[in-house]
Design goal:
- The protein starts with 18 loop residues before the first strand and ends in a 10-residue tail after the last helix.
- It has 13 helices and two strands.
- The protein folds into two domains: about 130 residues; about 210 residues, MetI-like fold, CATH 1.10.3720.10.
- A hairpin with a 2-residue loop joins strand 1 and strand 2.
- It has a two-stranded antiparallel ribbon.
- About 70% of the residues lie in helices and about 0% in strands.
């Protein structure tokens, strides 16, 4: 097994400075911890080319990647300046390329081992974010490092929890359930009464084109500043996607299947529950997944226009005005994790409820 040529740029690192101390350039041999990390990365690069077994090559490569990413963090911890350290950035670039090679091998592993790939990729992005923002001394008002965002979780944990409860538990969940349930019920009614469907579908297209920033102030004026106005915005945003997906799903049953139900003298409701709704499940879950992200976005945007002194949207707008970007990014992280978890739970339920669907069948 040959060594990948791209990480060999690591060999050029000793030629360039790897840090600066009070304006004086420092080279690899002048900082013991830097020399150690360099030797570990170089040994990993050489060793992974000599190992044929893939399950052993991956850990060796990851050791080299870890040493490459640990080097700038260790230098920053000792107070060195890294903005003009060309050798250091070559070292980080080589570690990134070595990670690329390792991820290619991880992707070929069977489940669940190949799930290690996304985790490593996300961790590498966070490490690069930390190294670049701190190494180039990016102002925190432009982009704080992940360590600063993590510190905001500890220093403002209580506030973030109250914001989560106000936005997600009180507004998003209630508005999501009401909007999806209403869209589903109206879709059943429109399917039973065809002229109603012809009248509602154009309204659905029209409502999807209305920006949430346009309806949020109106709902605040109608329902007040508490969770009711945010839930109303979510209902408006989630009603029509659910209705349209349900109607499309109810029409997905094949004509031969419908003829078979009629041959058994099955009426409308029996056909609906035994055939059309099970066939429509992929469409229903598609609407639920779309609405899971729309609901959170709608609640946060609606909180910009009026809310009690709590909520994710309130926190973002307030802390931006105070130039406290660490808390803003912490709130964004909470919203991103919440939205991803919400979407993942619905996708997991879909996998169990529609295991018969061709997209989930194992070849």
């Amino acid at each position: 097994m040959k060594t990948s040529p791209w990480p060999l740029i690591l060999l050029a690192v000793p030629v360039f400075p790897i840090a600066a101390d009070q304006g004086q350039a420092l080279y690899l041999w002048q900082v013991p911890i830097a020399a150690l990390c360099f030797l570990v990365s170089l040994a990993a690069l050489a060793g992974q080319g000599m190992i044929r077994a893939r399950e052993w090559r991956i850990p060796v490569q990851l050791i080299g990647v870890a040493a490459g990413y640990a080097l700038p963090l260790l230098l920053l911890g000792q107070g060195y300046q890294l903005s003009s350290a060309a050798g250091l950035w070559l070292h980080v670039a080589a570690a990134t390329l070595l990670l690329w090679v390792a991820l290619g091998l991880v992707a070929e592993l069977p489940r669940p081992q190949n799930m290690l790939g996304p985790a490593l990729f996300g961790l590498a992005l966070l490490m690069l974010w930390e190294v670049l923002t701190r190494g180039f001394e990016v102002p925190r008002v432009l982009l704080p490092p992940p360590s600063g965002i993590l510190g905001a979780f500890f220093s403002h944990g209580a506030e973030l929890w109250y914001d989560f409860h106000q936005t997600v538990v009180r507004s998003v969940l209630r508005g999501y359930v009401i909007g999806c349930a209403a869209g589903f019920a109206v879709a059943i009614l429109a399917d039973r009464i065809p002229f109603l469907a012809r009248g509602l579908l154009p309204l659905g297209n029209l409502a999807s084109a209305v920006p949430v920033i346009g309806i949020a102030p109106i709902m605040v004026m109608w329902f007040g500043f508490d969770w009711q106005s945010k839930a109303a915005v979510i209902v408006v945003m989630t009603f029509f996607p659910m209705m349209i997906n349900t109607l499309a799903g109810l029409k997905s049953a094949e004509k031969m299947q419908l003829d078979l139900m009629r041959s058994y003298a099955a009426g409308y409701w029996r056909t609906l529950f035994l055939l059309r709704l099970p066939t429509a499940l992929p469409f229903l879950f598609n609407g639920l997944k779309i609405n899971s992200t729309l609901a959170l976005i709608g609640a946060i945007v609606a909180e910009f226009f009026g809310t009690p002194v709590v909520g994710m949207g309130f926190r973002i707008s307030t802390e931006v005005a105070r130039m406290n970007l660490d808390v803003v990014w912490a709130t964004i992280a909470v919203a991103a994790v919440t939205g991803s978890a919400f979407y993942g739970l619905i996708a997991l339920a879909e996998r169990h409820a529609t295991a018969w669907h061709p997209s989930f069948r194992k070849r």
